[in-house]
Structure formats: structure tokens, C-alpha cells
């Protein structure tokens, strides 16, 4: 089984080093990396020289919460589709595998043809996806740390939206919207459908131009109205249908920044990847954590 791992990243961290080093060991894996255009590419080229790692040359300036996150994801899917694969994982530079390569293959073989993309349900605090798209959001919304004036501006923007201002003129062209988690694992067929849908419906991307956190809506809405929707895994007893361990409950950050103290919970979740992991976590502890990661791998990593 051929797997494409599409990684959105902006700095070289220990989780990223471990993830790329581990996944690139297996010839059936291909890794595609999009490095934020604001970042210097040199440290990445120095850190990751594996033969099955591909860099996207056309890089996008990614801003948190903006449509640029969608554009970078689409660039990765297009690059992966040129070479073909059975499944594609969308992960970030803060993610690590919490299952071995063999365990990942076994899960995908067991559910071959199914789609792993999580929609909000009783396991989530529900958010109305329409509010993400039906208004225009200015640049200040895409800053995690806002100045006092920007916080005031955001409040005034909310008042304006309730009064009927800042409306998105393309909103009414959209189908019913659906929301879920940003990170997914989908089949080659589903990936091809997404790209073909955008070719056939050019207005769709345009409608998200000034939206807010639309990466949690954009892909889910397309899949929901596709023939692949019937293949989406839905298991209320599972930790997450996306196969990702993400802790939104414990804090103090939301989502929680994971470290060695979270290993037991991560493992018992039955998921394949975890995020987001502390950038300076010890690589040797990660190597010991992943099942079937051999002593030879750890020795090679620190040679």
C-alpha cells in the first residue's frame, strides 16, 4: 500500500524530525512538505535529505485561521496526486505517529476504501459552520495574539455582522456546510474528487476567500456531498474518526501541548497520530514510544 504523508510546517522541531525520519524509512511512503513562505527553507533542506521527501517549490504565506491554510493543503494534494497513492494523511509539523508503520498499514488494510475525516457530533462542542463563511473577516481575525485595538475591532465586527454588514456575496452559492477537525486521512479517490470538484465549481474556493477557520469546513463540505460520504468512518465509541489524538479537555493550552506525561493516554486512544506535541520533546523518548521502533533506529538517529 502506498501512502502519501502531506505535512504543513513552518519550523524544524523535534516532533517533525522524528516523524519525517521514521516515516521515510519505508519505501512505500512518500512525504510531501509545505513550508510556510515566511520561513527560511535552508534548515529544512539540511534536516531532511531523504530520497522519498518532496518539497513544494511554490510556497504559500500561511496565516492562522485564513484560507491560506486551505490553499497550502490543496497544493499538497495536487503534488501527491501526480504520483499516485492509496491513502493520504494530512498532518502538521507538530504531529507524531503513535502507532508503528506496520500498525498504520494494518489499520488501513482492514478498512480499505473507508475515509477517516471527523465531523462534529456529540463528541465535540458544536459550532455553526455558516458563521465561519457567511461574513467577511478582516486580517485582525487571523492573529492569535491581538492588540487591544484589534480586540475592540473584532467586537465591533461582530456587532456589524448581527446588523447585516460584512456579508459574503458568494455565501448563497454554497451547498449546506459541514464542520469537523482539520486533519484527515482519505483515499486517492476522495482526494481526486476534491480537486475535480474545485475545477468544476470555481466559485467554491472564491466563497471562502475572507472566511474564518475555513479549513474545518472547506473539505468536509465537499466530501459530505460526494459519493465518498458513504465510506466515511463513523464510530461514536472511537476517540476520533480522523485517527488523531488531540486533547481539547485537559489544558492549560487548547488543544493541550503534549509531552511524555501524555504517552499512556495517547497509546490507549487507539489513534495513529497525535498532536500537538511539544517542539523540544526528547527525540529518544519518541523513538522508544512508537511500537516496533527498533534499537537500531535509535542508534542510527543519534549516530
From TrEMBL:
GO terms for biological process: chondroitin sulfate proteoglycan biosynthetic process; heparan sulfate proteoglycan biosynthetic process. It comes from Modicisalibacter xianhensis. Pfam families: Branch. Coiled coil: none annotated. It is a single-pass type II membrane protein. GO terms for cellular component: membrane. The keyword Cell division does not apply. This is Peptide O-xylosyltransferase. It comes from the Bacteria. It is found in: Endoplasmic reticulum membrane; Golgi apparatus membrane. The keyword Metal-binding applies. GO terms for molecular function: metal ion binding; protein xylosyltransferase activity.
